[in-house]
Amino acid sequence: MSTTPPAPSNSSTPNDPKSTAGTLLPNDTYPFPREFFFPPFFTRQTNLTTHHAQLTKWSALLLSYCRHHRLFRLPLNPDTLPFNNPRINRRLALGDIKGVVDFLRKDGRAEYVPLGQTRKDGMMTTMTTTTTTTTTTVRGGEAGEGGEAFIYWRTPEEWGSLIEGWVEETGQRGSVLTVYELREGEGTRGTEIWGMDGDVLVKALGTVVKRGKAQIFQSGEDSLGVKFF
């Protein structure tokens, strides 16, 4: 169990949000905002206006936290960061966590990971894609289906545009690459594409397909290939 860190050397206390703005917690490098150290932030507010403001702040926190750590999916676990603050002994209830995810979903910034999803180099058991010969969709789970959620600090459409830019800059039009090569190949090393979550990458490529700039196809038993136009 985490122990409460000593109070700062000045007269401020850990429960004072003004004293903890941008504060780091043990074993984490993210500078948490001041509201994260305010106990009511972890309790669902009953006033609708206040609750909307609370959801907005939690949404901004999740997007910022995941961007900072380059997380593409987040376990919906009340006992782990960023839903738990051991310094003030407060955690967000699971129902409220899903409320924040649902709030993000309305803006296309989150999606539940379906239960039982298998990850195979970007291939999901619940996933199909749009190609020149087959029309299908990439689906995310509904509320309560899974214990994880994709957090889109950059949406699949935004990732797709970034990939298109890389294709143009590197002269990859007409090339055929596997999802694995895009994620871990030397060609993307040093770019934001390298190391992407495979499922998010496939979703991003799907947006490029919709714009008529690529075709996705099966490349071997457990991988996907993509040809850029």
Query: Low-confidence parts, pLDDT < 50 over ≥5 residues?
Result: 1-19, 123-145
User: Would you count the extended β strands for me?
Assistant: 8
- Structural category: alpha+beta
Note the total helix count: 5
Q: What's the mean pLDDT score? A: 81
Beta-strand percentage range:
5-15%
Helix content: 25-40%
What characteristic shape results from the CA principal axes? Answer: elongated
Largest sheet: 3 strands, antiparallel
Strand order of the largest sheet: 1-5-4
Order of helices and strands: HEEEHEEHEHHEE
Q: What's the N-to-C terminus distance?
A: 54 Å
Rg calc: 20 Å
Please give a structural write-up.
By secondary structure, this protein is of the alpha+beta class. It has five helices and eight strands; from the N terminus they run αβββαββαβααββ. It has helices at 48-69, 94-106, 156-170, 179-184, 198-210, and strands at residues 73-75, 84-85, 90-91, 110-112, 148-151, 176-178, 214-218, 224-228. The strands form three sheets. It has a three-stranded antiparallel sheet with strand order 1-5-4. A three-stranded antiparallel sheet has the order 6-8-7. Strands 2-3 form a two-stranded antiparallel sheet.
